[in-house]
């Protein structure tokens, strides 16, 4: 019996060949206009070849001042579509689905010459610059930018969109009472703090019929901030808005040291999955196949999103399969038959990766 980790899952009529996704991680390797470079094609293509079912590039900014830092990918203008299309084409050819995480850095914009914005004029740290509080009209412009990004994501051939509401960036700032002190319809109650997220999801869903994920920071790690219980409320609304999966990360709204350990964020994914009957993704120090399999077998999440381990090992799924004593298909080029380039390659059965790599 195959481990659950390597069992397909279908979300919104899209089948993923296993439960492994590459988590979005900042690479800061775009050109000065936010366009895809050769680095992205090699970096993400190798993880697709390595066996991930779903590959997320780093966050694509929906507005120019939404970039987390220099070299961030953009999706705020039509000229970005050509490079993003090249990227999805490579990911698809290497056997994976392509996901795009769309977001806005808010007060954490990484360029000094670009305007820093937030729900309220509260800096991230005492040393950070003070952001400008968005007006209601500017909030509408942000919402429209997310909708336009969804259109471009569709044009570029992505299979999944993930809305980034985590890690202390703009939508997370609105959700958190630590960063949102507004007195209008976008601040105060849970409903008001969620309002911009509701509008963003509606704007994206109006343009996008495929799988829709939302990444959350399930806890702010600080008194007075959001906790996983708050996300039972937010998550219920997300489910009502036809969000397919909640990707459960944590932190980022305040500069607080976090005690991390293997699977430290999994309880939030389990809480939302069991309480709301919605698919969840688990992320955070998932290092081995056995860890991932335990999460899935015990119903704690539906997919695992692998981050730093994928940076160390582009073929992490193979490593996980070895850890689970499982057999998974391998690229034919990596078998002993792959050297026979002058004749057609035979169709190969699944084989242990460790036995088929050329020595």
What does this structure look like?
By secondary structure, the chain is α/β, with parallel strands linked by helices. It has two domains: 4-328, Aldolase class I (TIM Barrel); 330-359, no CATH class. It is built from eleven helices and 14 strands. It has helices at 38-49, 80-93, 136-156, 170-175, 190-207, 228-240, 266-276, 289-297, 308-312, 316-323, 353-356, and strands spanning 9-11, 14-16, 20-22, 54-55, 60-61, 73-74, 97-103, 117-118, 132-133, 160-165, 212-217, 245-249, 279-283, 303-306. An eight-stranded parallel β-barrel has the order 3-4-7-10-11-12-13-14, surrounded by seven helices. A two-stranded antiparallel sheet has the order 1-2. A two-stranded parallel ribbon has the order 8-9. The longest helix has 21 residues, at 136-156. The model is unreliable at 351-359 (pLDDT under 50).
